[in-house]
Amino acid sequence: MERDILDVLEQVGYDGPLQEEETLVKACEGGLSSPEYVNLCMWFKSRLKPLCDLEESSTSGSGDTDGLQFEMSVMLKELECPYQGLVSGILQGRLQNKKDHLKLVLFLSSEVQAAQIVKSRLVEDKQHKDRNDLQAICGTLKLPEPREQEVVELFSGIEQKINTVLQELPKDHIGKPVQKNTLDSEQWERLEQINTVLSSQYECRQRLLIKRLDVTVQSFGWSDRAKERVDSMARAYQPKRHSLAQRSSVGMAHLLAAREDICNVVKTSSGSSRENTACAVNKILMGRVPDRGGRPSEIDAPLPEMPAWQKRQDGGFGGRGGGRGGGGSWGGGKGGWRGGSGVGGGVGWGHGGKRGRYQY
């Protein structure tokens, strides 16, 4: 493990004192109590912060062990460290052996290496996109492909060619641009940020619509008849499905190229729009369907849940009769339950309050 760590440290550009196996092992044995080990961890953090957009936090000194433990634990959580023992162990101060500290260094060095690779690929993709845009411009204007020439010379040739082409076109053929103001670098940067936010929202909604489309098409294959034609359905659907882009391709160039006619809103029911959206399904008319109701104005009011209130009647409540002998009733005053009399009459008992008596 020590040699692997040294190889990765060399690849990520580390030039500190821990470039030998002996010094690295000694620093890992000391852990956060070793100044060299703490400096190595802080070097990892300084490299990862701009690459991974880590949260800003105060840097603790080598003597503040508790602050270092908390700071390292927060960084590991942000990086989604798969070793849960490291995240909880370093916060609770349970990383005492050399192996755990070596594992921590290996993880952080690997994260720096991966972040540098991803960053370089993003830069290469942007350069490749710019190169493709220049090639497209030169191809449209019928200019030779851009070689290893100066940018000023290249753009001056493009500008001269555009002015020549514009003179050959009729007046007001292109139209007036929407963006007529001159913006500074700060304003262009803000526009780029706005476009980034709108593009992310567009991508989120586009993913949702594509997922709905996938689920809808998948539901068409649930019937027994459709199960026999799964392959033919896939051959017809997949090419069109993969042609749907999830990310927006709108950028600052589209803003500069936009003309005033972009503000004209065309209705979806207009003839020009229906030429591209009309299909045979639209010509199928649905027959008359039964009226299922459900309109609030036609629904009767519900019955009252509570009974109507009545005035209390004098004489109290009548009791339940016992057999054929009639029922008793609850008396007033000292009270008591008076049982009914007669054949099969109920047996009564009375309670006269605190000093009441029972009658059997």
UniProtKB/TrEMBL annotation:
What is the residue range of the signal peptide feature? none
Locations of Gly residues compositional bias?
A: 315-351
Q: State which residue ranges cross the membrane.
A: none
Ranges for region Disordered: 308-360
In terms of Pfam families, this protein maps to: DUF2465 (PF10239)
Q: How is this protein annotated for GO cellular component?
A: tRNA-splicing ligase complex
Fetch the PANTHER family from UniProt: FAM98, PROTEIN FAM98B
Q: What is this protein called?
A: Family with sequence similarity 98 member B
UniProt organism field? Hucho hucho (huchen)
